[in-house]
Specification:
- The protein has seven helices and five strands.
- The chain is α+β, with helices and mostly antiparallel strands.
- A five-stranded mixed beta sheet has the order 1-2-5-3-4.
- Strand 3, helix 5 and strand 4 form a beta-alpha-beta unit.
- The chain is flat, with a radius of gyration of 34 Å.
- Keywords: Coiled coil, Membrane.
- InterPro entries: Bact_OuterMem_StrucFunc, OmpA-like, OmpA-like_sf.
Amino acid sequence: MRKIILFSLSVLLFASCNKKQLAQLTKDKAELQALLDKNKADCDALSAKLKNDISDLSNQIKMKDGDITNERAKLKAMEDELAYLKRTNTNLLDRLSDLSIVSKDGAESIKKSLDALNRQSSYIQDLNSNLRRKDSLNLALVMNLKRSLDNVSDEDVNIEVKKGVVYISLSDKMLFKYGSYDITTQAENVLSKIAKVVNDRKDFDILVEGHTDSVPYSSASVLEDNWDLSAKRATSVVRALQKKYGVAPERMTAGGRGEFVPKVANDSSQNRSRNRRTEIVILPKLDQFFQLFDSGK
């Protein structure tokens, strides 16, 4: 009888332990499943953003490929025309020499013309190569900026290549309070990341342009109108880049454009918000830009 009681107690104790272990395992499984679901959601979100960035870059590459194709077609046409002129001049020179009509000075003049045409052809080829190199540098700069600012909303920061240079458009609501030119704490984080990229690119200059909407500025301050407000905002950004983030002041220019260069019509509150912006334009230094054209002369 005593053995039976001990056996029953052992069975009950074993069952109780198993229930506790089962409950703990069930709890651990639920926690692991929740963690797995969260990680999967994070991975899906990151994958979607990467796909979007890749799509944007692919579209820009396609646009650049189209530009390069057009430039190559123009260059091919010019090279064909140059080859035709060379053949024509050479034939004329041979005929004139055979007929003893051209003097020595005349033949030398034609030869110099041919040499000038050869130099022009070389210049065109060098210029085309330099333009392709500039486009590649711009694309690399855009990719670096997008990587640095990947956690910033697209509504607050827009990066694109226009007219052969890189534009960074910063929204008014992120940079400043309404009607103010004091930079917000949120904007300082964005400006520090931009400064890090441009500080690594010493061969570029920076133009900062302030833009407003068409609503007249009115405030009991020293500012008179939207011209003043846009200029002060551009100056605030330049001053922050210099004093807080070490961007060389001789590389930067600040300017106000008022309401006179809108992105869209000022016919709704949403459009007016898009027009209130500050643009940081990253462009090649002027001396290097002119050397681009002088290198083949």
